[in-house]
Amino acid sequence: MPPPAGQWVSIVRAVFGLAIAAWLCLSFVLSSVPRVARAAAGAPGPPVIVAGGATEDATASNNQVKLTRDAAGLVVAYVGAVRGGAQVYLARSRDGGAHWAGLAQASDGPWPSRLPAIALDPAGRLHVTWTRYDDGVGKIYYRVWAGRWLGPQERISPASGYAGYPGLAVDSAGRPQVAWYGIRGGGVPAYTRHGSVYEIYYVAFDGRVWSSPLLISTGVPDSVNAAIATAPDGRVFAAWYQYDGRAYQVRYAERGHGAWSAPEGVFHTGSDQFNPDLAADAQGRVSLAWEAHTDLNSAIVYASRAGGTWQGPVTLSTGTMPARHPSVAVTSSGAVYVVWDQDDGQIYLRRHAGTWGPVRRVTGDGGNTFPAVAADGAAAAVVWTHTAGHLSRVEYARVPPR
């Protein structure tokens, strides 16, 4: 005999309640282990806030390394917003990026400071460089952290003239190498699309003093945003973009046996090439990425160099949405990571280990710009600036290899 109608209602309610309970239980289990599930699938971990109160360009620019790992953990250099301007700060994570805390303030004084770069030397010291706008004119400053600042901030560019966007690398002997773009005093004005007369300068520290700034770009004097890297054999590599009379093209030079080579083009086109970044592996192979512009679009393009020969180029970004600000890192095993941002406000990544893997989205919402990537073991460690409304912060994600 079937149960009475009232019992049917009770049975339905009980079954429905069990279903809801099972669904809630499953949801709790899944939500409690998202990192494990994502890591198992090779997906990026959820973004973690590194620092709030940042500027909208807190992790700019793409030619500068923003993230490294020392003996105590991961360290990020970024720009924090303060009353009346901006200053350069360091933040640290001691647990692989799960939690972050402020470490130190690098810059100080009445003038705003921006565009930091960071590098680790073999002794475990952190080298930091940035642009400070003294009286509104950019100057390059430098400092070293070893559990404390080893001295006050030091200006390493000339007292006169503009200097900005420093690239920083440290060689195997622990000597910092810095390149920036500046204006040469007494230079001959030349017409360029930007109407500027910027040139690339290089300095190095020998353990006692900084060398005099050396001009390493030649040709039409509108050379911008130098990226710099070193190899274990002592070579130093630099890339920037430079006006050739019709368009901006990526230029490359390297320093070996105490002298810089003459700059060369990488892959010449009739359209603009902007914002190169580069990295070198343990064998001195160079990985280079830049923006290739056509009409209103831009794509991320990659090339590599070994034995004095360029291989490529390969287009990494997909679709018709403009892609910008590439950042490059190489793991100890030689795998290459390239990240960039696109006009949808998302950060994207590709990995090369024999072949290029698919495009992977790192972020889940919009408002993300200026990514920077570093190798963290076999994984990619990525930081960027997230802006929503009038508030900006620095975010981090770890992207394991697939």
Question: Explain this structure to me?
Answer:
The structure is a single chain. Helices cover 9% and strands 50% of the residues. With 402 residues, it is mainly β. The strands form seven sheets. Strands 14, 15, 16, 17 and 18 form a five-stranded antiparallel β-sheet that branches. A four-stranded antiparallel β-sheet has the order 1-29-28-27, with no helix packed on it. Strands 2-3-4-5 form a four-stranded antiparallel β-sheet, with no helix packed on it.
Any descriptors?
single chain, 402 residues, mainly beta, Neuraminidase, five-stranded antiparallel sheet, four-stranded antiparallel sheet, 2 helices, 29 strands, 50% strand
Total discrete domains? 1
N-to-C span = 59 Å
* CATH architectural name: 6 Propeller
CATH top level?
A: Mainly Beta
- Please name the CATH topology: Neuraminidase
The rough form would be described as globular
SS-based structural class?
A: mainly beta
* Major sheet attributes: 5 strands, antiparallel
Please tally the helical runs, counting DSSP H or I stretches of 4 or more residues. 2
Mean pLDDT over the full residue set:
89
Number of strands: 29
User: Per DSSP, what share of the residues sits in E-state strands of 2 or more residues?
Assistant: over 45%
Poorly predicted regions: 1-41
Provide the gyration radius in Å: 24 Å
Instruction: Provide the helix percentage.
Output: under 10%
